[in-house]
Amino acid sequence: IELDGDMGIIADGAGTGMLTFDLIKDHGGEIETYCELGGKATPELIEEAMNIVLSNENVVVLLINLIGGLNRMDEMAEGIAAYVSKSRPLKAEVVVRMSGTMEQEGRKILKSQGITAFDNIYEAIERAVEFSGGS
């Protein structure tokens, strides 16, 4: 879904996505592109979602919000790391919030790519909005 802001969102489900959308708006951010992974995501799916969202020239920051119920955070981190390692330099800031199954392993994978994974959604959103130049 394309809108008229400067932030991209990737979420692992509809509820997570809508919460993220609302919180970004509440913090003064404007969303440009939203992508929901839905259900059981794979590393390849998250990498492709990043390709799609970051192909939009208006996106200056990408917020990825993942809650590991069905999805393992180490696998999601592998997909993010694959995108990042192929796309240096990144054209947008990437902010990740992850919580759930195998999250510590996922955090280690992201850290190796220079990405900090937040566990607190509010901190992640504040950082993403800050990067976008919002309030």
Q: What's the Cα radius of gyration?
A: 13 Å
Percent of residues in helices comes to 40-55%
Beta-strand portion reads 15-25%
Number of helices: 5
Global outline: globular
Oligomer: single chain
The helix/strand series, from N terminus to C terminus, equals: EHEHEHEHEH
* Weakly predicted, low-confidence segments: none
Q: Characterize the largest beta sheet: strand count, sense, and whether it forms a barrel.
A: 5 strands, parallel
What distance separates the N and C termini? 23 Å
Structural features, described:
44% of the residues are buried. The radius of gyration is 13 Å and the shape is globular. The chain has helices spanning 14-26, 43-54, 73-86, 103-111, 121-132; strands at 7-11, 31-36, 61-68, 93-100, 117-118. Helix content is 44%, strand content 21%. The chain is built from five helices and five strands; from the N terminus they run E-H-E-H-E-H-E-H-E-H. The longest helix has 14 residues, at 73-86. The model has no long low-confidence stretch (mean pLDDT 91). It has 135 residues and is an alpha/beta fold.
